[in-house]
What does this fold into?
Amino acid sequence: MFKFSNNDAFASIIGHSPILESVIRTAQIAAAADVHILIEGETGTGKELMAQALQQSSKRANQPFVIINCAALPEALVESLMFGHEKGAFTGADERKDGYVQKASGGTLFLDEIGELPLSLQAKLLRFVENGECQRVGSHEHETVDVRIIAATNHNLLQLMDQGKFRQDLFYRLSVVTLQLPNLQQRRRDIPELAKHFLLEAAQRNHTEVCTLSADALTQLKQYAWPGNIRELKNVCAHVSALLPGEVIHKENLPLDIRECKTSSSSGYTLPEHGIDLESLEIDLIKQALKHSGGNKSKAARLLGLSRDAFLYRLKKHDL
Ligand SMILES: Nc1ncnc2c1ncn2[C@@H]1O[C@H](COP(=O)(O)OP(=O)(O)OP(=O)(O)O)[C@@H](O)[C@H]1O
Ligand SMILES: [Mg+2]
It folds into this structure.
Protein backbone atom coordinates (compact mmCIF):
# COMPACT_ATOMS: atom_id res chain seq x y z
CA MET A 1 0.00 0.00 0.00
CA PHE A 2 1.14 3.52 -0.80
CA LYS A 3 2.58 5.42 2.16
CA PHE A 4 3.48 9.05 2.37
CA SER A 5 6.01 10.56 4.72
CA ASN A 6 5.01 12.77 7.63
CA ASN A 7 6.45 15.91 6.15
CA ASP A 8 4.46 15.31 2.99
CA ALA A 9 1.84 18.06 2.43
CA PHE A 10 -0.82 15.34 2.24
CA ALA A 11 -0.04 14.11 5.77
CA SER A 12 -2.56 16.65 7.13
CA ILE A 13 -5.30 14.62 5.44
CA ILE A 14 -6.02 12.01 8.11
CA GLY A 15 -7.30 8.54 7.19
CA HIS A 16 -6.15 5.28 5.67
CA SER A 17 -9.29 3.86 4.05
CA PRO A 18 -8.59 2.54 0.53
CA ILE A 19 -11.08 4.95 -1.03
CA LEU A 20 -9.26 7.96 0.46
CA GLU A 21 -5.79 6.63 -0.27
CA SER A 22 -6.75 6.15 -3.90
CA VAL A 23 -7.84 9.83 -4.15
CA ILE A 24 -4.62 10.96 -2.43
CA ARG A 25 -2.50 8.95 -4.86
CA THR A 26 -4.15 10.68 -7.82
CA ALA A 27 -3.84 14.05 -6.06
CA GLN A 28 -0.10 13.60 -5.50
CA ILE A 29 0.47 12.93 -9.18
CA ALA A 30 -1.81 15.79 -10.26
CA ALA A 31 -0.16 18.25 -7.84
CA ALA A 32 3.19 17.75 -9.54
CA ALA A 33 1.70 17.94 -13.04
CA ASP A 34 0.62 21.60 -12.67
CA VAL A 35 -2.75 21.04 -14.35
CA HIS A 36 -6.10 22.56 -13.34
CA ILE A 37 -7.98 20.41 -10.85
CA LEU A 38 -11.63 20.06 -9.90
CA ILE A 39 -12.42 18.77 -6.40
CA GLU A 40 -15.91 17.36 -5.88
CA GLY A 41 -17.38 16.32 -2.56
CA GLU A 42 -20.20 16.88 -0.11
CA THR A 43 -19.97 19.62 2.48
CA GLY A 44 -17.28 19.04 5.11
CA THR A 45 -15.43 16.29 3.24
CA GLY A 46 -12.14 18.23 3.18
CA LYS A 47 -12.13 19.97 -0.22
CA GLU A 48 -10.32 23.04 1.07
CA LEU A 49 -7.85 20.93 3.02
CA MET A 50 -7.16 18.97 -0.18
CA ALA A 51 -6.69 22.19 -2.17
CA GLN A 52 -4.12 23.38 0.39
CA ALA A 53 -2.25 20.08 0.24
CA LEU A 54 -2.21 20.26 -3.56
CA GLN A 55 -0.79 23.77 -3.45
CA GLN A 56 1.80 22.93 -0.80
CA SER A 57 3.11 19.93 -2.67
CA SER A 58 3.20 21.69 -6.04
CA LYS A 59 6.06 23.68 -7.53
CA ARG A 60 3.96 26.76 -6.71
CA ALA A 61 4.18 26.08 -2.95
CA ASN A 62 6.00 29.33 -2.17
CA GLN A 63 3.79 31.42 -4.41
CA PRO A 64 0.43 33.00 -3.47
CA PHE A 65 -2.58 30.83 -2.70
CA VAL A 66 -5.68 32.96 -3.21
CA ILE A 67 -9.04 31.63 -2.03
CA ILE A 68 -12.25 32.91 -3.61
CA ASN A 69 -15.67 31.86 -2.40
CA CYS A 70 -17.68 32.14 -5.63
CA ALA A 71 -20.96 32.03 -3.66
CA ALA A 72 -20.08 35.21 -1.79
CA LEU A 73 -19.01 37.41 -4.73
CA PRO A 74 -21.30 40.46 -5.01
CA GLU A 75 -22.82 40.27 -8.52
CA ALA A 76 -22.15 43.94 -9.39
CA LEU A 77 -18.45 43.77 -8.48
CA VAL A 78 -17.67 40.23 -9.49
CA GLU A 79 -15.71 41.07 -12.66
CA SER A 80 -13.53 43.76 -11.10
CA LEU A 81 -12.91 41.63 -8.00
CA MET A 82 -11.79 38.78 -10.22
CA PHE A 83 -9.84 40.55 -12.96
CA GLY A 84 -9.10 44.01 -11.44
CA HIS A 85 -10.04 47.43 -12.79
CA GLU A 86 -8.54 50.62 -14.20
CA LYS A 87 -8.74 53.97 -12.46
CA GLY A 88 -12.07 55.62 -13.35
CA ALA A 89 -13.57 52.38 -14.69
CA PHE A 90 -16.70 53.00 -12.62
CA THR A 91 -17.92 55.38 -9.92
CA GLY A 92 -15.71 54.90 -6.89
CA ALA A 93 -12.81 53.37 -8.84
CA ASP A 94 -10.35 56.07 -7.79
CA GLU A 95 -7.26 53.94 -8.37
CA ARG A 96 -6.14 51.05 -10.56
CA LYS A 97 -6.61 47.79 -8.67
CA ASP A 98 -5.51 44.20 -9.08
CA GLY A 99 -8.12 41.45 -8.99
CA TYR A 100 -7.76 38.00 -7.43
CA VAL A 101 -6.23 36.74 -10.65
CA GLN A 102 -3.32 39.22 -10.56
CA LYS A 103 -2.90 38.65 -6.80
CA ALA A 104 -2.48 34.94 -7.48
CA SER A 105 0.09 35.51 -10.24
CA GLY A 106 2.66 32.71 -10.29
CA GLY A 107 0.62 30.79 -7.73
CA THR A 108 -2.76 29.11 -7.32
CA LEU A 109 -6.30 30.39 -7.41
CA PHE A 110 -8.73 28.32 -5.35
CA LEU A 111 -12.23 28.83 -6.74
CA ASP A 112 -14.43 27.48 -3.98
CA GLU A 113 -18.10 26.70 -4.73
CA ILE A 114 -17.46 27.15 -8.46
CA GLY A 115 -21.03 26.00 -9.19
CA GLU A 116 -22.24 29.37 -7.84
CA LEU A 117 -20.25 31.48 -10.31
CA PRO A 118 -22.62 33.67 -12.39
CA LEU A 119 -22.89 32.60 -16.05
CA SER A 120 -21.67 36.02 -17.22
CA LEU A 121 -18.38 35.50 -15.41
CA GLN A 122 -18.08 31.88 -16.50
CA ALA A 123 -17.55 33.08 -20.09
CA LYS A 124 -14.73 35.41 -19.03
CA LEU A 125 -13.20 32.78 -16.80
CA LEU A 126 -13.24 30.34 -19.71
CA ARG A 127 -10.94 32.56 -21.76
CA PHE A 128 -8.64 32.98 -18.80
CA VAL A 129 -8.55 29.24 -18.12
CA GLU A 130 -7.79 28.54 -21.78
CA ASN A 131 -4.87 30.87 -22.31
CA GLY A 132 -4.28 32.87 -19.12
CA GLU A 133 -5.65 36.03 -20.77
CA CYS A 134 -7.81 38.51 -18.93
CA GLN A 135 -8.94 42.10 -19.13
CA ARG A 136 -9.33 44.58 -16.28
CA VAL A 137 -12.67 46.36 -16.12
CA GLY A 138 -12.26 49.64 -18.02
CA SER A 139 -9.23 48.48 -20.02
CA HIS A 140 -8.94 47.57 -23.70
CA GLU A 141 -5.67 45.73 -23.19
CA HIS A 142 -5.38 42.02 -22.54
CA GLU A 143 -2.91 40.82 -19.95
CA THR A 144 -1.58 37.34 -19.46
CA VAL A 145 -1.27 35.93 -15.95
CA ASP A 146 0.23 32.57 -14.98
CA VAL A 147 -2.12 30.96 -12.48
CA ARG A 148 -3.06 27.40 -11.68
CA ILE A 149 -6.73 26.88 -10.87
CA ILE A 150 -8.09 24.49 -8.29
CA ALA A 151 -11.89 24.59 -8.24
CA ALA A 152 -14.18 22.93 -5.71
CA THR A 153 -17.88 22.16 -5.65
CA ASN A 154 -20.43 20.33 -3.54
CA HIS A 155 -22.97 20.58 -6.38
CA ASN A 156 -23.34 18.07 -9.13
CA LEU A 157 -21.91 20.13 -12.02
CA LEU A 158 -23.27 17.67 -14.61
CA GLN A 159 -26.76 18.44 -13.30
CA LEU A 160 -26.07 22.21 -13.36
CA MET A 161 -24.89 21.82 -16.98
CA ASP A 162 -28.14 20.02 -17.87
CA GLN A 163 -30.06 22.91 -16.32
CA GLY A 164 -28.01 25.43 -18.32
CA LYS A 165 -26.48 26.90 -15.16
CA PHE A 166 -22.91 25.81 -15.78
CA ARG A 167 -20.94 26.00 -19.03
CA GLN A 168 -19.88 22.66 -20.40
CA ASP A 169 -16.71 24.09 -22.02
CA LEU A 170 -15.63 25.58 -18.68
CA PHE A 171 -16.31 22.29 -16.91
CA TYR A 172 -14.04 20.37 -19.30
CA ARG A 173 -11.27 22.98 -19.05
CA LEU A 174 -11.31 22.97 -15.27
CA SER A 175 -11.61 19.24 -14.77
CA VAL A 176 -8.35 18.17 -16.36
CA VAL A 177 -8.14 16.08 -13.22
CA THR A 178 -11.19 15.49 -11.02
CA LEU A 179 -10.78 14.40 -7.43
CA GLN A 180 -13.91 13.03 -5.80
CA LEU A 181 -13.69 13.13 -2.03
CA PRO A 182 -15.62 10.34 -0.30
CA ASN A 183 -18.15 11.25 2.36
CA LEU A 184 -17.62 9.99 5.89
CA GLN A 185 -20.11 7.13 5.42
CA GLN A 186 -17.87 5.75 2.68
CA ARG A 187 -14.87 5.78 4.99
CA ARG A 188 -16.28 4.82 8.37
CA ARG A 189 -13.14 2.91 9.24
CA ASP A 190 -11.33 6.28 9.46
CA ILE A 191 -13.65 7.55 12.22
CA PRO A 192 -11.54 6.33 15.21
CA GLU A 193 -8.35 7.85 13.79
CA LEU A 194 -10.07 11.13 12.87
CA ALA A 195 -11.78 11.39 16.27
CA LYS A 196 -8.50 10.76 18.10
CA HIS A 197 -6.82 13.43 16.00
CA PHE A 198 -9.55 16.01 16.63
CA LEU A 199 -9.69 15.28 20.38
CA LEU A 200 -5.93 15.81 20.63
CA GLU A 201 -6.15 18.97 18.54
CA ALA A 202 -8.94 20.34 20.79
CA ALA A 203 -6.99 19.53 23.98
CA GLN A 204 -3.89 21.28 22.64
CA ARG A 205 -5.94 24.30 21.62
CA ASN A 206 -7.65 24.53 25.04
CA HIS A 207 -4.51 23.58 27.04
CA THR A 208 -6.36 20.70 28.71
CA GLU A 209 -5.87 16.97 29.10
CA VAL A 210 -6.96 14.93 26.11
CA CYS A 211 -10.31 13.04 26.18
CA THR A 212 -10.57 9.39 25.25
CA LEU A 213 -13.57 7.58 23.79
CA SER A 214 -15.17 4.55 25.43
CA ALA A 215 -16.03 1.56 23.23
CA ASP A 216 -19.76 2.39 23.31
CA ALA A 217 -19.13 6.01 22.28
CA LEU A 218 -16.95 4.86 19.40
CA THR A 219 -19.58 2.35 18.25
CA GLN A 220 -22.11 5.16 18.22
CA LEU A 221 -19.80 7.45 16.21
CA LYS A 222 -19.32 4.67 13.67
CA GLN A 223 -23.09 4.17 13.28
CA TYR A 224 -24.11 7.77 12.81
CA ALA A 225 -24.81 9.05 9.27
CA TRP A 226 -22.64 12.23 9.48
CA PRO A 227 -24.52 14.54 7.06
CA GLY A 228 -21.95 17.26 7.86
CA ASN A 229 -19.11 14.80 7.30
CA ILE A 230 -15.68 15.47 8.79
CA ARG A 231 -16.51 19.02 9.86
CA GLU A 232 -19.38 17.64 11.95
CA LEU A 233 -17.13 15.02 13.56
CA LYS A 234 -14.56 17.72 14.30
CA ASN A 235 -17.26 19.88 15.95
CA VAL A 236 -18.47 16.96 18.08
CA CYS A 237 -14.90 16.34 19.27
CA ALA A 238 -14.48 20.05 20.08
CA HIS A 239 -17.81 19.99 21.97
CA VAL A 240 -16.97 17.01 24.22
CA SER A 241 -13.40 18.25 24.77
CA ALA A 242 -14.68 21.60 25.99
CA LEU A 243 -17.33 20.13 28.30
CA LEU A 244 -15.43 17.14 29.67
CA PRO A 245 -11.72 17.88 29.38
CA GLY A 246 -9.48 14.87 30.00
CA GLU A 247 -12.42 12.50 30.67
CA VAL A 248 -13.44 9.20 29.16
CA ILE A 249 -16.34 10.03 26.84
CA HIS A 250 -19.30 7.63 27.00
CA LYS A 251 -22.27 7.28 24.68
CA GLU A 252 -24.41 9.43 27.06
CA ASN A 253 -21.96 12.32 26.67
CA LEU A 254 -22.47 12.55 22.93
CA PRO A 255 -24.90 15.03 21.32
CA LEU A 256 -28.50 13.75 21.13
CA ASP A 257 -28.58 13.06 17.35
CA ILE A 258 -25.58 10.83 17.62
CA ARG A 259 -26.44 8.89 20.77
CA GLU A 260 -29.97 8.24 19.48
CA CYS A 261 -29.03 6.91 16.06
CA LYS A 262 -29.90 3.25 15.47
CA THR A 263 -27.26 0.65 16.25
CA SER A 264 -29.08 -2.51 15.17
CA SER A 265 -26.48 -3.45 12.56
CA SER A 266 -23.22 -1.84 11.59
CA SER A 267 -24.29 -1.37 7.97
CA GLY A 268 -27.89 -0.31 8.57
CA TYR A 269 -28.93 -3.41 6.58
CA THR A 270 -30.74 -6.27 8.31
CA LEU A 271 -30.27 -9.81 7.02
CA PRO A 272 -33.72 -11.34 6.27
CA GLU A 273 -34.70 -14.52 8.17
CA HIS A 274 -34.58 -16.61 4.99
CA GLY A 275 -31.06 -15.36 4.15
CA ILE A 276 -29.75 -13.93 0.86
CA ASP A 277 -27.66 -14.92 -2.15
CA LEU A 278 -24.61 -12.73 -1.51
CA GLU A 279 -22.97 -13.49 -4.85
CA SER A 280 -26.04 -12.45 -6.88
CA LEU A 281 -26.55 -9.39 -4.70
CA GLU A 282 -22.97 -8.28 -5.30
CA ILE A 283 -23.34 -8.71 -9.08
CA ASP A 284 -26.61 -6.82 -9.02
CA LEU A 285 -25.15 -3.92 -6.98
CA ILE A 286 -22.12 -3.69 -9.28
CA LYS A 287 -24.42 -3.50 -12.31
CA GLN A 288 -26.55 -0.84 -10.63
CA ALA A 289 -23.46 1.22 -9.74
CA LEU A 290 -22.23 1.03 -13.35
CA LYS A 291 -25.65 2.11 -14.57
CA HIS A 292 -25.77 5.08 -12.16
CA SER A 293 -22.28 6.17 -13.14
CA GLY A 294 -22.96 5.88 -16.89
CA GLY A 295 -20.26 3.20 -17.17
CA ASN A 296 -17.57 5.25 -15.38
CA LYS A 297 -15.71 2.64 -13.30
CA SER A 298 -14.09 5.09 -10.86
CA LYS A 299 -17.48 6.62 -10.08
CA ALA A 300 -19.12 3.20 -9.78
CA ALA A 301 -16.37 2.13 -7.36
CA ARG A 302 -17.02 5.20 -5.23
CA LEU A 303 -20.77 4.49 -5.14
CA LEU A 304 -19.93 1.12 -3.58
CA GLY A 305 -17.34 2.56 -1.18
CA LEU A 306 -14.56 0.65 -2.94
CA SER A 307 -11.20 1.69 -4.34
CA ARG A 308 -10.94 1.45 -8.14
CA ASP A 309 -8.61 -1.55 -7.80
CA ALA A 310 -11.01 -3.41 -5.50
CA PHE A 311 -13.84 -2.66 -7.92
CA LEU A 312 -11.88 -3.88 -10.97
CA TYR A 313 -11.04 -7.05 -9.05
CA ARG A 314 -14.74 -7.72 -8.48
CA LEU A 315 -15.60 -7.04 -12.13
CA LYS A 316 -13.04 -9.62 -13.15
CA LYS A 317 -14.17 -12.08 -10.48
CA HIS A 318 -17.74 -11.97 -11.77
CA ASP A 319 -16.71 -11.80 -15.43
CA LEU A 320 -18.62 -8.54 -15.94
N1 LIG B 1 -9.09 13.97 6.19
C1 LIG B 1 -9.07 14.98 7.06
N2 LIG B 1 -8.17 14.98 8.08
C2 LIG B 1 -8.15 15.96 9.00
N3 LIG B 1 -9.00 17.01 8.99
C3 LIG B 1 -9.91 17.07 8.01
C4 LIG B 1 -9.98 16.07 6.99
N4 LIG B 1 -10.95 16.40 6.13
C5 LIG B 1 -11.49 17.55 6.59
N5 LIG B 1 -10.87 17.96 7.72
C6 LIG B 1 -11.20 19.14 8.54
O1 LIG B 1 -12.64 19.25 8.50
C7 LIG B 1 -13.04 20.61 8.34
C8 LIG B 1 -13.84 20.74 7.05
O2 LIG B 1 -12.97 20.55 5.93
P1 LIG B 1 -13.02 21.51 4.65
O3 LIG B 1 -13.30 22.93 5.06
O4 LIG B 1 -11.79 21.26 3.86
O5 LIG B 1 -14.31 20.89 3.93
P2 LIG B 1 -15.04 21.34 2.61
O6 LIG B 1 -15.24 20.11 1.79
O7 LIG B 1 -14.31 22.48 1.98
O8 LIG B 1 -16.47 21.81 3.16
P3 LIG B 1 -17.53 22.86 2.52
O9 LIG B 1 -18.09 22.24 1.26
O10 LIG B 1 -18.60 22.96 3.56
O11 LIG B 1 -16.81 24.13 2.27
C9 LIG B 1 -11.77 21.43 8.32
O12 LIG B 1 -11.54 21.91 9.62
C10 LIG B 1 -10.69 20.44 7.91
O13 LIG B 1 -9.43 20.79 8.40
MG1 LIG C 1 -14.94 24.48 1.65
